[in-house]
Amino acid sequence: MRNVLITGASRGIGAETARLFAAQGDNVIINYFRSNAAAETLCREINSAGHKAVTFRADVSDSHETAAMFAYAEQCFGGVDVLVNNAGIAQTKLFTDITDDDWQRMISTNLSSVFYCCRAALPYMIRKHCGRIINVSSMWGQIGGSCEVHYSAAKAGIIGLTKALAKEEGLSGITVNCIAPGVIRTDMTANLSEEDFAALADETPTGTIGTPADAAKAILFLASPDSSFITGQVLSVSGGFVV
Ligand code: NAD
User: pLDDT of the chain along its 243 residues, tens only?
Assistant: First the structure.
């Protein structure tokens, strides 16, 4: 049984990831920012199935709130064995319309959060000489998305952080990987119409749109003993959209 902290876990990919870790018997720390009701509902769902979950409200773009969350995780479970950096925001804007605030919010929520969480999680993992970090990037971090330059830059930053940290922590028994989802049906893509989804599916080799479970299962694989010789990698979960 491991202790798994998932950021932005009240809904979408994060919530599904929490359910799957809990179902295999792991303790789950559900981080949320604004969606208190959804996080509590998920927590009750997991606990009433006989598994163990707790919630913690923290804005992971804030290093102090993030540090407080890891202190709570330590108090509840002793430390975090598996960290899933999933929290993120998206925004579609012409590059020339991106304001300083848009840029700062995008970078601090999607990239600085990963730095804060990894830094807070690592001392315990290093002491135990084992640990798993799985970061959620995006295919736009690999290939760039038009009208999502700030999002693409933050997600590309996650890939760089993942590779460098994997090299630094390998001898400490810690693997660091990321997944790069393609189009997944969640609140983040709720602005897309059914016609948009159909066109995107058409462009995808599998002819389908991804589900939160598709991404969550890839995260579980990267946290499992089956992936112990895999580190510093970017696993595309895009139905072949990016090959
Ligand atoms: P979502 O909007 O349902 O989930 C994002 C979660 O992050 C939400 O629970 C939100 O409350 C949380 N969050 C946002 N800011 C936060 C903050 N400051 N502190 C704590 N939590 C915060 O969308 P999703 O699709 O489930 O997104 C999960 C991850 O997957 C994101 O990092 C996203 O960029 C990435 N992703 C999604 C897609 C897609 O098509 N849906 C594709 C590629 C990558």
Answer: 999 999 999 999 999 999 999 999 999 999 999 999 999 999 999 999 999 999 999 999 999 999 999 999 999 999 999 999 999 999 999 999 999 999 999 999 999 999 999 999 999 999 999 999 999 999 999 999 999 999 999 999 999 999 999 999 999 999 999 999 999 999 999 999 999 999 999 999 999 999 999 999 999 999 999 999 999 999 999 999 999
Instruction: Report all structural domains of the chain as residue ranges with CATH numbers, in order of start.
Output: 3-237 (3.40.50.720)
What six digits make up the tokens of 26?
A: 């792991």
Q: Ligand 1: does its nearest atom lie under 6 Å from the Cβ of 181?
A: yes
- C-alpha span between 62 and 116 (Å, rounded): 8
**Distance in Å, CA 178 to ligand 1 centroid:** 14
**Closest ligand 1 atom, CA of 151?**
34
Ligand 1 centre from 198 Cα, in Å? Answer: 22
Q: Is the pTM of this model over 0.85?
A: yes
Write the secondary structure of 16-30 as one string of H (helix), E (strand) and C (coil): HHHHHHHHCCCEEEE
Cα separation of the two ends of the chain: 35
